[in-house]
Amino acid sequence: MQAAPVRATVIPTVTDALRAVESLLLSSGQRTARRNAWTAVLEDRRRAEDRVESGYVPEREAVAARRSQAT
């Protein structure tokens, strides 16, 4: 007795659905421009996070130095 073959059905994700709608509504040039713009936004956010993280360390060291000089 053999087991019945298992069929894998792929369930589309929300991202897949949005890309399908996008491909219907926008030309390829507009899609590329939108994706490039979004990539730039994400890169700007990453750089801003890096600036904030790097800015905290010198501030903490400066505060600690002022406290040690005050005592």
Q: What are the defining features of this structure?
A:
single chain, 71 residues, mainly alpha, 0% strand, elongated
Question: How are the elements arranged and paired?
Answer:
Elements lengths: L13 H12 L2 H43 L1
Describe the structure.
The radius of gyration is 26 Å and the shape is elongated. The chain contains two helices and no strands. Helices cover 77% and strands 0% of the residues. The chain is mainly alpha-helical and 71 residues long. The longest helix has 43 residues, at 28-70. 0% of the residues are buried.
In short:
The protein is 77% helix and 0% strand.
Low-confidence stretches: none
Distance between the termini: 85 Å
Q: Supply Rg.
A: 26 Å
Helix amount: over 70%
What is the succession of H and E elements? HH
Q: Count all strands and give the number.
A: 0
Strand content: under 5%
Largest sheet: none
- Based on CA inertia axes, which overall geometry fits? elongated
Class by alpha and beta content: mainly alpha
**What's the total helix number?**
2
On the 0 to 100 scale, the average pLDDT is 81
